[in-house]
Automatic annotation (TrEMBL):
InterPro entries the record matches: Alkaline_phosphatase_core_sf, Phosphodiest/P_Trfase
Record's protein name: Phosphodiesterase
SUPFAM superfamilies: Alkaline phosphatase-like
Signal sequence annotation: none
Pfam families reported in the protein's UniProt record: Phosphodiest (PF01663)
GO molecular function, one term: hydrolase activity
Amino acid sequence: MIIPAYGSSTLADLLPSVAARLGVPGYETDRLGLPAADRYVVVLIDGLGWDLLQGAAAQTPYLGSLLAGSRSLTAGVPSTTVTSLASLGTGLPPGQHGMVGYTSRVPATGEILNALTWESDLVAQDYQPKVTEFERARAAGIAVTSVALERFESTGLTQAGLRGPAFLGFREERAVDVRVALTVEAALRGERSLVYAYERELDHTGHVDGCASPAWRRHLGRVDRMLAQLREALPAEVVLIVTGDHGMVDIPPWHQLIAEEHPDLMAGVDALAGEGRFRQVYVDREPVAAVARRWAERLGDKAWVRTRDEAIEAGWFGSVDPELRERWGHVLVAMRTDWAVMTRQFPRELSLIGMHGSLTAAEMTVPLLIG
């Protein structure tokens, strides 16, 4: 089990370290030992885990060349895109920004919020009102820009955890020349600059085909070539930082445990949310300890089963704002081995091969590469 070292070596520490280097007021310490510069490009590759990258040297001549002398960071808990991007954007642990997973229950309404699609009347900036690192940098006179798919500009997740930058959008993800040109343009703005660029397709390929698949490795090779092209196009004084938001593990279909097929698991349960590797169990009518005990007995050494209070006490989410506490499930089920707890509430997830969300090293550790 990997417990994040919030404040020293997590995704939430990356942009505060960049801010310190750029001279943003209130940031005195570069926690990660980044190179000094006036211009930074931070590229986040969705699904690029540390273990996965180390095992793919043949497909990554450029990224592989950066591994020597590099280090890893950890995602927050759960190790999933919603939580990781919010941690990156706010510079805060999950316990402070409250974006607690792919899906979660909204305490005030009881609705299950999918924070990626955000098909909800919730106002994203109200749900996550903490100031982002991008907003702070922009207020300090830094030219801050996000380069991503056009349709991501106004999503709920962007407005919740990544708001603040100017936005340069592209329509075609395979239009590498366009993406590189936009990123270089953004990096050269102003006297000091910070660019955030996002690549999502590697994660999608892993979910559909598995992270051990030839398709995943081929796509990683395309990402590697794009980053090599970007580094060549950027002026030498621009520091390129490459990281990921989580790793991934492949789950055999016969290791998908369907919660609804086990009455002992569903007894006393009012709602399920989260993801297959980090299931959040909401309990309103029965003692939480009794529900946790049944889940632990059923799953045995396949999972770490903790109550919300136990997980908070163990530091899974960092310091937790009391107003956000109810967003997490009363019982949290983090898978240890190559198993997942699925639910018929989310039938599309039953076709996934690659998954993430738990506290294993393969899911929690991501690279911090300096190009």
